[in-house]
Amino acid sequence: MAEIEIDRLIWIVTGVQLTAELGDRPLAYRVEQAIRGHLASLLDPPPEGEPPALAPAVISDVYYLNHDAAQSRPTISIGGPGVNAVSAAWANDLPTIVAIEDALVVQMDLEMNDRRCAVWGMDHVDTVRAVELFINKGYLETFVTAVAKEIRSED
Asked: What pLDDT score does 1 carry?
């Protein structure tokens, strides 16, 4: 298998606890599909046999936190601090752009100087609501557009 070029990846991170695997990982795949859709409208398709300029990948918080190179890439963390160590690590670092008390939180830098987002709820249902809000209110599109712009400027 060819070596994976992580400089072409957008990480979507979930926790490794069973509740995160069962509840948040499917949400991460929903975000992954939304990212693919946005990237298709922003970037030219790669030549035949070439990897895409940018692609999403769902990984665990354990992998992310144990690989320094992974931490250099744009990242969306799905799931709350109680089930996702990445969301816990970022809880006080990222600006909160949406907070519904005792329900859900979306954290990201809207100026896109920081290429990290955390999207979570107090329980699974609220995390579902947070992910849908993140996608439907255009926050995901803002994130993906900024990352794609960065990739285009590097080419």
From this structure: 46
